[in-house]
Amino acid sequence: MGDNIDSVGQGGGMVYRDSRAWLMDLVADLVWLSMEAAARAARRRMAKPPRRGVGITLRPGDETGLWNALVERVQPHLRRPGAQAILARELELPRQRVHDYFIRRNRMPDAERTLRILTWVIKQETPEAFAEQLAQSGARRSGSSTASATPDTGSSA
After folding, report:
1. Is residue 86 predicted with pLDDT exceeding 70?
2. N or C: which end of the chain has fewer CB within 10 A?
3. Spatial contact of 91 and 117, defined as CB atoms under 8 Å apart
4. For the chain, what are the domain ranges?
5. Model pTM score
């Protein structure tokens, strides 16, 4: 059937004498349509994003460079157990919102909470805070291991 040149096939309103010609025309049309779709998608990606209205909240992304830098500064401090909950208490937010800000990165806080986050980071990065955290973690480790190894009898002699 494919080699029979006398066979007549119809496609798109055109009459073909050869079924291979009809198939090749169909493939060419599909390739052309896919190229047009790819070109439209590329033009959409290259186009400037629409200008947002005045007062509309920004969303985290490539165009929020300062927020991204702050997130990078906060993330190491959130690795400690309980740090997300502590920051959430300071921001007066649920812990899940802190997760949205710094882990999922799909939300941004308002200006007041952003300033609170900045002060929290500064407190976390000062040498006194580092020394205090180190002392607390050392006390926890030594307190838990010495308490179980040697019980305190209360006498020094």
Report:
1. yes
2. C
3. yes
4. 1-31, 65-138
5. 0.48
